[in-house]
Design brief:
Rossmann fold; Arc Repressor Mutant, subunit A; 3 domains; 18 helices; binds adenosine-5'-triphosphate; binds magnesium ion
């Protein structure tokens, strides 16, 4: 069956490009119970990588159950706990199903009664939904229930020798809630005691995630293995794009076309997919002009989408952003740079911090300031 070659949503399977090393490392960490903080800039492939790694492990027949809990639309402590407990109940149901498939013991009523008994504090109810076991907790969504749910699920996974992985995505939302520290402490306690449960934390607001995980005063400080996700290499993209070109046009992509795609998108995974998904609609293999045309269209769409962000920037932030876009990416306090921006050195430092907190500007592994390629194109266009 034909599949979408360059999805602009979470990617797994044939459309997933490489990341072999990261997948192998992440699988190892999950397997051995090391709690992970997956850190990357917005739309760099955190969720896709996690889900692809889980698929790898499942196709390897590993005894693993995984749930992704997404906190983006939560509002306050109760709703965060509700979301996490929903994932705990799904993980518990998955463990029960796993044991059920393994053999006779897991098929007996006594087994199910025993599991229900261990979760009695959370008033569990079991039902069958389209032939699949479904479990829910009728409980107050308080911190105590959260602790108990995580503890009991970990015990169950340990008893049946199953690795349970709980991915908490958009984890920075915890810190935004009034009782954030209380929740982070409860999670830390479980994380310290966990035997078969591995926690994975990630979030799209990089600066807030950094505060949560690396501020010495926060409960989760020093409690996770940090995995920093960089961009996919040009070599891996060349292989991937050539495979996709052969499937579409029976021919590899000309080198100059590939180089232009890489140069314009700077290997930003989301924008590269956005550009290629348009190019791959061509009936014939695209040329360089096609790439430029699609790129301009993509930048136009992003300018519209990010209008609010641009309007929210102060004039100093705009000046500094334009300077970075034009290539001033290091030694930002030097006379050369401050003269070009027309701001004093201390104002530049302060403004850079603000831009980083707003996730508009980041730093690469050499410490150079970076902005995403579309924002860069827009900043230059309108400066
Ligand atoms: N390995 C990959 N192969 C192909 N495309 C990818 C890959 N990783 C990411 N992408 C592209 O990047 C986009 C963003 O990926 P994803 O949603 O996984 O990132 P994220 O870091 O979780 O984003 P957010 O910061 O919004 O949570 C995907 O929609 C896809 O277009
Ligand atoms: Mg994500």
């Amino acid at each position: 069956m034909k599949y979408e070659r360059f999805p602009r949503r979470i990617v797994t399977g044939n459309a997933f490009c490489n990341r072999d090393k990261e997948r192998a490392m992440l699988a190892k960490l999950l397997r051995q119970g090391s709690h992970v903080w997956l850190q990357a800039h917005r739309r760099h492939g955190k969720t896709s990588l996690l889900l692809q790694t889980v698929e790898d492990m499942k196709s390897n027949n590993e005894d693993i159950v995984v749930e992704r809990c997404h906190l983006l639309f939560t509002s306050g402590m109760e709703s965060i706990i509700k979301q996490i407990l929903q994932s705990v109940s799904k993980l518990t149901a998955a463990i029960i199903e796993f044991e059920h498939c393994r053999g006779e013991q897991g098929k007996s009523q006594a087994f199910l009664d025993k599991v229900m008994e261990s979760f009695s504090r959370l008033n569990p109810t079991v039902s069958m939904d389209k032939g699949k076991l479904s479990l829910s907790f009728e409980t107050h969504n308080d911190v105590d229930a959260l602790r108990k749910g995580l503890e009991k699920m970990d015990e169950l996974a340990t008893q049946y020798d199953i690795r349970a992985v709980l991915i908490i995505d958009e984890f920075q939302e915890l810190g935004k809630s009034a009782d954030g520290l209380l929740l982070e402490s409860a999670i830390r306690d479980r994380l310290e005691l966990a035997k078969s449960l591995t926690f994975v934390f990630c979030g799209s607001e990089r600066a807030l995630m950094s505060q949560t995980m690396s501020d010495t005063k926060r409960p989760l400080y020093n409690h996770t293995h940090q995995v920093e996700l960089n961009r996919i290499s040009a070599d891996s993209y060349q292989k991937h794009l050539n495979q996709m070109a052969i499937l579409e046009w029976n021919s590899e992509l000309p080198d100059d076309v590939f180089n232009t795609i890489i140069e314009l998108t700077e290997r930003h995974p989301y924008y590269l997919n956005a550009v290629c998904s348009e190019l791959w609609l061509n009936s014939e293999i695209p040329n360089n002009d096609d790439v430029y045309e699609v790129w301009d269209k993509t930048v136009g769409i992003v300018a519209h989408e990010e209008q609010r962000l641009f309007l929210s920037l102060t004039s100093n932030e705009k000046k500094t952003l334009v300077a970075i876009a034009k290539g001033f990416r290091t030694n930002m306090n030097s006379a050369k740079v401050t003269t070009a921006i027309a701001l004093g050195a201390s104002t530049v430092s302060k403004t850079l911090k603000q831009l980083q907190n707003k996730d508009v500007v980041g730093r690469d592994n050499k410490g150079f300031y970076v902005v995403n390629p579309c924002i860069k194109a827009i900043a230059i266009q309108y400066s």
